[in-house]
Predict the structure.
Amino acid sequence: MTTVEGATAGRRRALEPRRVATRHGWTIGVYVLLLLLLIAYIWALAPVTFTSFDLKTIVIGALPLAFAAMAQAVIVISGGIDLSLGVMVAVINVSAASLMENQSFATSLLIAFGLMLLGVVIGTINGGLIVLTGVPDIVVTLAMSFVWGGVALLIMRTPGGGSPLEYQALGTGVFGIEWIPAGAVIIALVLALVWLPIRWRRPGFAIYAVGSNRDRAYLSGVNVATTRVLAYSIGGFFAAMGGLAATATTGIGTPYAGTFITLNSVAAVVLGGVSLAGGKGGVVGPVAAAFCLTLVPSIMVFQGIDPNYGQVIQGALIVIVVMIGGLVLLRERR
Amino acid sequence: MSTAATTPDELAPRPGPVRAAGHFLIDRPLIMLSAILVLLLIACEIASPGYLGADRMGIILQFSAPLAFLAAGQTLVMLTAGIDLSVAATATAAAYIMAGQASRGTATALAIAVLVGLVVGLINGIGVGVFRVNPLIMTLGMASIVSGYLTVSAQSFVTGVPLVPEFVRELAVGSLIGDAIPKSLLLWGPVAALILLGLRYSGYGRMLYAVGDNPLACRLAGVRIWQVLLVVYILCSILAAIGGVLYVGVINAADLQLVSPYLLPSVAAVVIGGTSIFGGIGGYSGTILGAIILVVLDSLLTLLDASQAFKQILYGAIILLLAWLYATSTKRV
């Protein structure tokens, strides 16, 4: 909510280091962590030199989770949580892979736009059911995770399908020069063209307001029900992007990928500085956190350590970061 | 749940007979749940005549027991407004390590299984109780740590041939008095009674409701909340470990993903049983019925020969429907 106060304060103050540190400290911290992990990655890779190909590999590996983290971030900021996010990604992934098989590039782009709409519809159904039934978010999305998981299996029982190579290049290719992976450009584009315009207008402020205090938002004239559904719809769009990214990076559809993405999207959101209580944080931090979470196991592999230790370290990383965050919060309150 | 509900009823003007009957049912969700269970059983009988044989109830209870143990811990944690997403990982670890250490003797193996639960619960409890980490995150992280560690060191836990001890196998699938009573009831029954009575009559049981209902008031009243939380997460993980041991007895083979399909059902059983995810309302009796309903529902969908996809969709839709019914019926107008 600091953003609203900042905007109403009238004249915008210059970038004071202290203010930047308190407002964006966590996000900056996550990017520092990402940088450190990248250095560790390069170091682990030695004697082989780090090339643009390695950078591309990192982006390809993290792309679906990064979009899922964005989706979960918007939903958690609005005060909800979506445990069906991973299977939503899977639904779009298998739909894309089964529809795009043996299609031309133009048709597959058209299909991609259609599936983005489908993602919005799925998200709206989740949000609508939550508002309509009055059942807690976590229970509704838990139940819906079975439903969407079933739908994914209905579309495709075993991994398969395909997509045109030009379409796959959107996720795996490069943009212009070798060092700019196309996937990173797409994340930046989606952030700039979809999220930021919403974020800094009425609906975005409403999402933050509803997440921070539902009753006060209601009393300030925010339509709480619509805003909550809107957050799930936006989440559905990002989840669809995640599914499309999964089709682009793997080339096929996998109906079972759900649970991994759901749990890791929650982890990425928390690591990215979004409060699970809602109303605090942004979307940029979780994206970096998603990259961090996928980098850890790859570093392990290069070090010759069992990659399953990556899972242990991921878990420990999340818990310790949240513990430190809690302690910082406690100290600030005193 | 019924004790807290009487006050508004007493204050309201005397309701008509229909509404009074409605209130009577709402105050006793067990009646509704039992009715749903009976309907499901009838549906099973219609789908496959002869389903309701003499030993059917025993088989249902035998399959429900592992889930009921996982959901028991989940119930206790949810009463304090928490959630434990590490129950499946804990149960798997306990079962796997128990099977791996079986050559050291059954008693030692079982003690090790309980010890696994104790350690995981202790860490969860310290994280949630002392460091105030959000339970969702703490237990999610812990699940990741436990299953990752188990995968890495799976081989080192196995001394001799990994096998399910005869005692565990017998406890999980054996039965008394000609198939009528499963032997797991000998363990489940006393534990269930202990939880039911403990929640109602012991000071600690009441404290769980109090902490879930209003932690601030509890702190002001001098309750050491961190101790209550520490103990409840330990209890939850130990119950999960026992559930895992029973499950490996039913399946009769240990693998690294053994209990993971039970994670979401363990939450669903508690929710269907009428325990609020926000804490302070509910109890174990509903959870028992919730677990049995889920098991019967699963067998009904199998009987109907539904594909895996339709099975999942129906399963999710029915969980949502029950939760919705529960949410609307408890909203007193």
Remarks:
- Chain A has one domain: 62-325.
- Chain A is about 75% helix and 0% strand.
- Confidence is low (pLDDT under 50) at residues 1-10 of chain A.
- Chain A touches chain B through 45 residues (CB under 8 Å).
